[in-house]
Design goal:
A hairpin with a 2-residue loop joins β1 and β2. The longest helix is centred in the first third of the chain and has 15 residues. The N terminus and C terminus are likely disordered. This protein is α/β, with parallel strands linked by helices. The radius of gyration is 21 Å and the shape is globular. The chain is built from seven helices and twelve strands.
Length: 321
């Protein structure tokens, strides 16, 4: 694993902030534009993040101003993702327009990202929030129950390994020897026997995950996506020992899952409360070993897996590889 470069502590965008370093994670406080300078190109296998939502949760920018702001930061971070195999995953949500219509900017953004950053859209995963908040004052449309998870790649050779789940008892029962419907299970059979994959069934591209179930994660302003969402894409697009970046890390969910799964993570946030929350949580999960201080920004990742792995998520049904 390649070492990181030292960032310039005098950069005004980091002045007054801090950086926290542990054997398998780093959290920066400040503008992610400045933190990007600490890392060489092709350093990370996966960038998984949820940028501030335009006009929501106190973030003021909307429309063209928001797009310009986001593209500037993507331009700094996309080159840090491996050009050959790397993947970029953005989880985002727009509110309604001022006059109540669906905001098409959130779809236009996808094309802009392709055009401006040399990425190709691999897939869209609607995140079906199983416990979405009430509709409130909305009386002309149904309540919003989903967010966009957009998966981009830098080349056709991007790394992908399907994350499988256990077969249902019904599917297993159909596959029993002598069942005349065996061949219907997967549509593939040898001598009349259907083949069930030993690692389980393929999953679809709709993420049905509770946003506030017992995730064992702290909360900060703007919320955070579930740990199961981070787990899915880390397993799907990285190997053990790979680097995962989150330039809008919030409470540190991406980093927590990266460390638990044997990867190393780098997160950035300009909110001091979010950074303190993330660092406190990560320190608890990994044994509390880290150093901090903006002057101490030179760091080499050892790539030896987590110091003290986070316990497996309950009922995930997914093995670590």
């Amino acid at each position: 694993m390649q070492p990181t470069n030292a960032a310039t502590a005098s950069d005004p965008r980091l002045r007054g902030g801090k950086s926290y370093h542990a054997p398998d994670w780093v959290v920066w406080q400040g503008d992610c534009l400045a933190a990007a300078a600490a890392y060489p190109d092709d350093q990370f296998q996966l960038l998984l993040t949820s940028p501030p939502y335009p006009g929501l949760h106190g973030f003021p920018l909307r429309g063209a101003a928001y797009h310009a702001w986001l593209h500037e930061r993507l331009a700094a971070w996309v080159p840090k993702v491996r050009a050959q195999t790397g993947v970029v995953v953005l989880v985002y949500k727009y509110g309604r327009t001022d006059d109540g219509w669906f905001d098409l900017d959130q779809l236009i953004l996808l094309k802009e990202i392709e055009q401006q950053h040399g990425l190709k859209l691999v897939d869209l995963y609607p995140w079906d929030k199983l416990n979405s908040p009430p509709a409130g004052s909305h009386d002309r449309h149904d309540r919003d129950e989903w967010e966009i998870t957009a998966v981009f790649a830098r080349s056709p050779d991007y790394f992908y390994r399907p994350v499988r789940k256990p077969y249902s008892p019904k599917t297993i029962a159909k596959n029993k020897t002598g069942n005349p419907r065996q061949a219907d299970v997967l549509g593939k059979h040898t001598n009349g026997h259907a083949r069930l994959h030993p690692q389980g069934a393929r999953q679809g591209n709709v993420l049905r995950i509770s946003s506030s179930g017992d995730q064992g994660r702290p909360r900060v302003t703007g919320g955070s996506f579930p740990r199961q969402l981070a787990e899915r894409f880390i397993l799907q697009h990285t190997r053990q020992g790979d680097g995962v970046a989150d330039p809008f890390c919030g409470a540190g969910t991406t980093l927590a899952e990266a460390v638990r799964l044997g990867r190393w993570g780098v997160g950035v946030d300009d909110d001091a409360v979010a950074v303190e929350t993330a660092v406190t949580w990560l320190a608890q999960l990994t044994g509390g070993r880290f150093v901090n201080g903006v002057e101490d920004v030179s760091y080499s990742h050892k790539g030896q897996g987590p110091v003290n792995p986070v316990p497996e998520l309950k009922n995930s049904g997914i093995s670590v590889f």
